[in-house]
DNA sequence: GCTGATTGTCTTTTT
DNA sequence: GACAATCAGC
């Protein structure tokens, strides 16, 4: 399996708890996946007894893929998920002990905002005085620290501002409970409470997992740690992996001392991995030099025997515009030298910095993909479409009131415009409240509206009711497609020339089709629950694109060429972070820089710019982190007499080739000959069908009434000629 | 009463 | 440059 001595030791220590301190690029994911494979293959541990907790959905997906590659005969029976989705799974099974229905709703941050909006309106609070973001942070902080609204109110007795915050918190909690809705924090809190309150349930989950792995353990908070502790029974072996130098989530409650004192808490064996297999010596030495400025840290020096690939390039742009242009030109030059776009990443401190980059990349015709920012499932049109779908859910036995429907109604009742404005909504809300019902049920009652509003509302509720009847008869993707058509949502987007939004809706429908295919017996409810924790869609197209993301999002990833953009004091390190948390804030920023630098395999490019800064209210200066890199590793382009700027050469050719390869992908060969019009075919999920037409490699096939007409790739593996 | 245009405010990081 | 509150018109 090709592991070094330390890695091997980490993999094979299975009779006690282990703490793996794994420096950047030291192969920690490899060790964890190898360990899982080792447990199953060598030690004959059932995959069902193994749990792995990752930090993001993306990391979970990656780990799954790697385990499946190592053990191809096993189909993903090892549980690999984020702590949030794990807790959701636990709660879907056992939340009833807290008096909640198993089909509870999960609120995303957008829904949480809309609850706050109601609170502000009711309590006549000005958003300017209390931004939604700061209020949510306040609520989250209290919740995860187990401070109840009443305690918060008590503590705020003499502080008027605090009191208002506490009151909003109280309202928020009340509303969530009414809707049987859980926000992201609640998923952990409720799971914690279930495990703590009910011993038999706790034992049940303890028996389920014999080996638990927790990745990115340096970013675990106290609540998460307590959950993990309760999952560990007498016979459980816990294996935690992390790097204290990569703690970048203390603002969210992450506590490094948890990993630092873990060996004492659990009498664990510690294995230190400090050979780096990723980066060049130059990059590693520079990163080591920067991080050594942190005082609150345990000494750990990474080393590597990789060959060197030259100095770190640093460019300080003399004006705003030059920096993105330089980056784009450099990327174009790299691509000209046969570097694949997806081996290039541009990292930055904050999402908004991507805007200026986008512009320059676009001008240079460089394909790129931005991670983060507004994610797929957070887009307006997607949330609207899903809200329409939610309204079709059958009545639940466990939850009589279904108050969560209010959120969905508020989203879609006037989208597209039906002439239902604020005044009508007030009436509806008052009626629902007075009769203790949700707003959708209230809609079905006569006498609330009159005139135009009345007829429009009737039309709306008739359509929804009609579709509620159809849920089991039509496949989900077709159901949504035809519903959005009928309520006029698509027409609305077309009228506004919202081509991108229409595309997104199409993608969502395709996504659902994909789900239907994989789960032919899946229900609407199961689909909605499954996606409730996904913020982003699994990218199916692996097109060759430059990757743009924040440093936080880049955690755990690596690229041959890494650009770190806008390294200016105030931006990075962030002024706000330093003001809020002082020295500790600066040290976290420095760890962030350490993470950014160590993402690079071959070459690192740093850039900053001069000019006026809004954050600093003054001239921008290069980041102090640049000064912390020893001169010998840096090639400062501005210090040379004549910087060799790569010319901005547009590369339309490369784009064309890329598209050509993408579309020719489908002409694979399959046994049994080509599918043609009139052929009878069998599909793994949809059953028998007849080919109606074939366009290049897309076949239009008529299946039974439930699945209807579908377009599929002719060489799709689940499609067989009969 | 509802809709669309306009002004003003704030932009750290994520499940 | 995004978003929400505000205002003037239909």
Instruction: Count every helix, treating DSSP H or I runs of 4 or more residues as helices.
Output: 29
**Biggest sheet, in brief?**
7 strands, parallel
What integer is the average pLDDT? 84
What is the approximate shape?
A: globular
Q: Please tell me how large the radius of gyration is.
A: 28 Å
Query: What's the number of extended β-strand segments?
Result: 22
Distance between the termini: 43 Å
The order of strands across the largest sheet is: 11-12-10-13-14-9-17
**Helix fraction bin:** 40-55%
The assigned structural class equals alpha/beta
TL;DR of this structure?
Helix content is 46%, strand content 14%. By secondary structure, the chain is an alpha/beta fold.
Layout of secondary structure:
Blueprint: H1 5-12, E1 18-22, H2 28-41, E2 50-54, H3 57-70, E3 79-82, H4 83-94, E4 105-106, H5 109-123, H6 132-144, H7 149-155, H8 160-178, E5 181-182, H9 184-197, H10 199-208, E6 211-214, H11 222-231, E7 237-242, H12 256-260, H13 262-266, E8 269-273, H14 281-291, E9 312-317, H15 322-336, E10 344-348, H16 354-363, E11 368-370, H17 380-390, H18 405-412, H19 422-434, H20 439-443, H21 451-470, H22 476-486, H23 489-495, H24 499-518, H25 524-531, E12 546-550, H26 551-554, E13 559-564, H27 575-597, E14 600-609, E15 612-613, E16 618-619, H28 624-627, E17 634-636, H29 652-664, E18 680-683, E19 687-695, E20 698-703, E21 709-713, E22 719-721
Parallel strand pairs: 1-7, 1-8, 2-3, 2-6, 4-5, 6-7, 9-14, 9-17, 10-12, 10-13, 11-12, 13-14
Antiparallel strand pairs: 15-16, 18-19, 18-22, 19-20, 20-21
Helix pairs in contact: 1-2, 2-3, 4-9, 5-6, 5-8, 7-8, 9-11, 14-27, 15-16, 17-18, 22-24
The protein binds a DNA duplex (15 and 10 nucleotides) through residues 55-57, 82-85, 108-109, 127-128, 131, 133, 184-185, 187-188, 248-249, 251-252, 349-352, 355, 372, 414, 417, 419-424, 453, 533, 535, 550-553, 571, 574, 576-577, 592, 614-615.
């Amino acid at each position: 399996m090709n592991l070094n001595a330390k890695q091997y030791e980490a993999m094979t220590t299975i009779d006690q708890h282990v703490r793996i301190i794994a420096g950047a690029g030291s192969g920690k994911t490899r060790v964890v996946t190898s360990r899982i494979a080792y447990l199953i293959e060598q030690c004959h541990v059932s995959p069902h007894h193994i749990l792995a907790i990752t930090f993001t959905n993306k990391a979970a997906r990656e780990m799954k893929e790697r385990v499946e590659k190592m053990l191809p005969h096993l189909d993903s029976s090892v549980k690999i998920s984020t702590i949030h989705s794990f807790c959701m799974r636990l709660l879907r099974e056992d939340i009833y002990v807290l008096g909640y229905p198993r089909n509870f709703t999960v609120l995303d941050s957008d829904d949480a905002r809309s609850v706050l909006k109601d609170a502000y309106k009711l309590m006549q609070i000005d958003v300017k005085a209390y931004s939604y973001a700061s209020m949510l942070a306040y609520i989250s902080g209290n919740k995860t620290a187990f401070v109840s609204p009443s305690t918060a109110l008590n503590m705020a007795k003499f502080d008027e501002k605090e009191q208002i915050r506490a009151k909003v918190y109280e309202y928020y909690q009340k509303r969530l409970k009414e809707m049987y809705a859980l926000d992201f924090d609640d998923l952990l809190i409720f799971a914690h409470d279930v495990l703590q309150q009910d011993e038999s349930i706790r034992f049940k989950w303890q028996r389920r997992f014999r080996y638990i792995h927790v990745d990115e353990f340096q970013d675990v908070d106290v609540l998460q740690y307590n959950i993990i502790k309760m999952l560990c029974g007498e016979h459980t072996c816990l294996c935690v992996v992390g790097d204290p130098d990569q703690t970048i989530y203390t603002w969210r409650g992450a506590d490094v001392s948890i990993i630092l004192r873990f060996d004492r808490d659990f009498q664990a064996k510690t294995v230190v991995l400090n050979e780096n297999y990723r980066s060049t010596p130059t990059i590693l030495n520079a990163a080591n030099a920067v991080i050594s400025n942190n005082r609150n840290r345990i000494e750990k020096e990474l080393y590597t025997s990789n060959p060197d690939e030259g100095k770190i390039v640093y460019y300080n742009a003399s004006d705003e515009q030059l920096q993105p242009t330089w980056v784009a030109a450099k990327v174009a030059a790299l691509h000209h030298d046969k570097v694949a776009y997806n081996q290039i990443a541009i990292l930055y401190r904050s999402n908004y910095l991507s805007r200026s980059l986008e512009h320059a990349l676009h001008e240079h015709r460089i394909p790129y993909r931005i991670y983060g920012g507004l994610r797929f499932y957070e887009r307006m049109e997607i949330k609207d479409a899903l809200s329409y779908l939610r309204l079709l859910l059958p009545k639940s036995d466990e939850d009589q009131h279904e108050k969560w429907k209010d959120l969905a109604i508020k989203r879609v009742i006037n989208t597209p415009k039906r002439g239902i404005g604020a005044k009508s909504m007030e009436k509806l809300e008052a009626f629902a409240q007075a009769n203790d019902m949700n707003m959708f049920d209230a809609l079905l009652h006569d006498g609330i509206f009159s005139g135009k509003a009345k007829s429009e509302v009737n039309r709306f509720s008739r359509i929804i009711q009609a579709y509620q009847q159809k849920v089991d008869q039509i496949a989900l993707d077709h159901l949504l497609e035809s519903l959005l058509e009928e309520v006029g949502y698509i027409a609305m987007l077309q009228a506004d020339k919202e081509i991108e939004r229409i595309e997104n809706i199409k993608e969502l429908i395709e996504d659902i089709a994909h789900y239907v295919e994989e789960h032919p017996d899946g229900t609407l409810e199961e689909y909605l629950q499954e996606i409730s924790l996904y913020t982003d869609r699994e990218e199916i197209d692996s097109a060759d694109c430059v990757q743009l993301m924040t440093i936080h999002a880049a955690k755990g990833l690596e690229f041959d060429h890494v650009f770190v953009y806008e390294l200016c004091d105030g931006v990075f390190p962030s002024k706000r972070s330093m003001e809020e948390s002082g020295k500790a804030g600066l040290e976290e920023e420095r760890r962030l820089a350490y993470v950014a630098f160590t993402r690079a395999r071959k070459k690192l490019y740093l850039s900053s710019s001069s000019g006026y800064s809004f954050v600093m209210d003054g001239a921008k200066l290069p980041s102090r982190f640049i000064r912390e890199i020893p001169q010998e590793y840096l090639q400062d382009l501005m210090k040379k007499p004549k910087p060799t700027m790569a010319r901005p050469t547009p590369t339309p050719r490369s784009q064309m080739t890329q598209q050509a390869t993408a579309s020719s992908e489908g002409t694979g060969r399959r046994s049994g000959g080509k599918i043609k019009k009139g052929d009878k075919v069998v599909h793994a999920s949809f059953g028998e069908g007849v080919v109606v037409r074939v366009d290049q490699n897309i076949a239009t096939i008529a299946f039974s009434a439930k699945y209807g007409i579908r377009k599929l790739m002719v060489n799709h593996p689940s499609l067989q000629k009969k």
